[in-house]
Write a structure and sequence with these properties.
Strand order of the largest sheet: 4-3-2-1-5
Shape: globular
Number of domains: 1
Number of strands: 5
CATH topology: SH3 type barrels
Distance between the termini: 22 Å
Order of helices and strands: EEEEEHH
Radius of gyration: 11 Å
Oligomer: single chain
Largest sheet: 5 strands, antiparallel
Helix content: 25-40%
CATH architecture: Roll
Number of helices: 2
Structural class: alpha+beta
Amino acid sequence: MIGKFAISKAGHDRSEIYVIVAEEGDFVYLCDGKYRTFSKPKKKRKKHIQLINCIVGDELLTKLLNGGKVMDEQIKYELKILKK
């Protein structure tokens, strides 16, 4: 699931779009680059998100999967492209 886009289905952030940056059991960690940065991702249960059939660009995806340094600007850029 890492590198996919997701929409929050529950909570005060309902209908916000995020990038999944990590996965742990029944939880995923979400970032939007603005309010939820890569250093402080939002922890959310998988049942409270709706996956979008789209993934981030190759450069960001390899950084996420290999544990590379990810900048918040890269996440914001990917979300901006998705919203267009």
